[in-house]
Structures are given as C-alpha cells and as structure tokens.
Amino acid sequence: MMLTMSVTSQAKPDGDKKDKKEKFEKRGDMHKKFSPEKYYKHMEEYISKSADLTDNEKAKFFPLFKEMLEAQRKIVEQDREVMRSFKEAKTEAEFEKIIDKTTSLQVENKKIEQTYYKKFAKVLTWEKICKVRMAQTRFNMRALRSFSPRDARRGGRNFNHRGFRPDFKDKKNQKNENAEQKQS
C-alpha cells in the first residue's frame, strides 16, 4: 500500500505544474491594473441599455454625465485628503474639524448632483433620469462585488477580465427580452 502511494505521488508533479501555470495564465487578465476608461465605457453601455436611451439622447447626455462624475471625483479626492489627516489629529477640536469638513464636502457633492440633474432634464425626461440613476447604482454595486477578493476566488471577474460584460441580466430586462422573443 505504501508503495502505490509513493508511485502515484511521484507521477503528478509535472502535470500539476503545467496545470497551475495554465490556470495562472488564463487568470492573467484579472491581475491587471484597474482601467477607469474601461469602467466608464462599461458603465455607459449598461446605463444606455437600462434606461433605454436613444443615440441622440446618449450623444447629449453622456458628456454632461461625465462632467458631473469628474466634478464629483474632485470632491471625493478632497474628502480622502481630509480623511488622511485623521492620523495626525490629536485633539477633539481637530477631529471635529475633520468631520465638519467631510460632511460639508458630502453636501457639496450632492449639490453638484442636484445641479446636474437639472441639466440632464434638458436632454432627458425625468423618468429616464430616474432610470439612469438606478442603473448607475446597480452598476456600481455589481462592479464592487466583482472586485471583491472573495468573488475572485470563486472565479469573479473585474473590468480587465475578458469575460466581464456590463449587460447584467436584470429581472426587468430579462422579462422584456422574453416578451420580445415570444412576440417574434
């Protein structure tokens, strides 16, 4: 019995090394750096599909949307910088100043959002604006899940992975697709 175990354990190493190397090469895309351009492109595709935007609406809406995201990104960077000062803070007054600054930045972020929603209303209906907002939230939640290490161990994908697709099957979209197929 001992003899058979040693023979089988000696026969595997070459095959295991090749298998591991192939698996690593297949997963190579997952280990690339995050690409904001790809993320935005996938978000745009997902939002367009979820909100049923026409080509004309897309052409007018997405430059404004990108403008809003850029303005919000600047606020978030300021917020991060303020939160980094947390490590150097020693007194209650310094901590209070940090909290005041971060909350005022969050309010400013929401004011930017509110301003841009009014601009969006010039090119989209309020219904579509609501659909855009819901689609953006869903997209971001799913994107975060796809980046989690737990999901990666289970074969999760990130935006650089060749298998990632932004066209998640929502229940609503799936029902619409099924209805369209039945009518055809």
Strand content: under 5%
Supply Rg. 24 Å
Helical residue percent band: over 70%
Overall residue-averaged pLDDT value: 78
Shape estimate = extended
Output the number of helix runs: 8
SSE class: mainly alpha
| SSE string | HHHHHHHH
The number of E-state strands comes to 0
Q: pLDDT below 50 for ≥5 consecutive residues: which ranges?
A: 1-11
Tell me the span between the first and last alpha carbons.
65 Å
Largest sheet: none
Summary keywords:
single chain, about 180 residues, mainly alpha, disordered N terminus
Question: Concise description?
Answer:
This protein is mainly alpha-helical and 184 residues long.
Q: Care to describe what's here?
A:
Helices cover 75% and strands 0% of the residues. The chain has eight helices and no strands. It has 184 residues and is mainly alpha-helical. The protein has helices at residues 2-11, 13-26, 36-50, 55-84, 92-120, 126-147, 149-153, 171-183.
List the helices and strands and how they pair.
Elements: H1 2-11, H2 13-26, H3 36-50, H4 55-84, H5 92-120, H6 126-147, H7 149-153, H8 171-183
Helix pairs in contact: 3-6, 4-5
